[in-house]
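Reading group handout, session on sequence-to-structure problems. Before we discuss, look at one worked example. The prompt was deliberately terse, the way you'd type it at a terminal:

> structure ROK family protein

The input record follows.
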Amino acid sequence: MQNDIVAALDIGGTKIAGALVDRQGRILVRAQRPTPAQEDGETVVRAVEAVVAELAASPHWGRARALGIGSAGPVDASKGTVSPVNVPGWRDFPLVERVAAASGGLPVELIGDGVAITAAEHWQGAAQGYDNALCMVVSTGVGGGLVLGGRLHPGPTGNAGHIGHISVALDGDPCPCGARGCVERIASGPNIARRALDGGWKPGADGDTSAAAVAAAARAGDPVARASFERAAQALAAGIAATATLVEIEIAVIGGGVAKAGDVLFAPLRRALRDYATLSFVQNLTVTPAMTGTDAGLVGAASAALGARDAAVAGVGG
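And the output record:
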């Protein structure tokens, strides 16, 4: 069993990445294709099958015992289906069934991309050694996942910990999800940029209106840019504090493009957290940047597959 490896897929709106990963989390083989996100569902799944076929051509493939998928969501692990917002051709698409067939019948474990990044951070990143953690991705959207009692907690459908759609502003702006005042509607990169522009922030000569450009302006002291990040930090703090109060997490790990703003985000976030995480059992909550980088989705999908494989083997043995 120590020699076993797992296959992993990280499926998003831009790329479909695949890897063979050993028990130490080392990536042995990689494969990648662009996601034909605007094509029909069959075209998209053919790109996934091409990645699996490339992995299967590796001499390491014979040691693969399971396959993990971290996919953009929503996902439904209980049904093995995915309906990613940014892949319109996939609605309740039977991804697990198709990938199992393409892999020659390997057991397949499906989780959402936020849960995958959580698995990676708990295995090899900033949440390592913590039994109760929230890990978040703050980027184009805001996603997340939970570790509870030392184990990944994906929930029945694979979406537990989706902090981006906790409402933190009861009368806030409508969110595309259908609710109001969601964390994502305030703290995602595009919404940070939108709020800064609405407030009168002017981009530089290059015309860059991204959240990264707003972060640079905030770092240089622009008050409108700084205020937009402070509002995002407040929304994140309220969501993190609510989660901590509910399930007693010890650490919140934040990754994604917006987290690269550094102290522009983390300083007001830690300040705001003092206003929201007030009960004795959440006051010592640690907030820290993620560590696992661009391979987090693959490493997390592999971790979930290894965990499911080990649990199945233990069940058979018991």
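Points for discussion. First: The two ends are 16 Å apart (CA to CA). Second: The mean pLDDT is 93.
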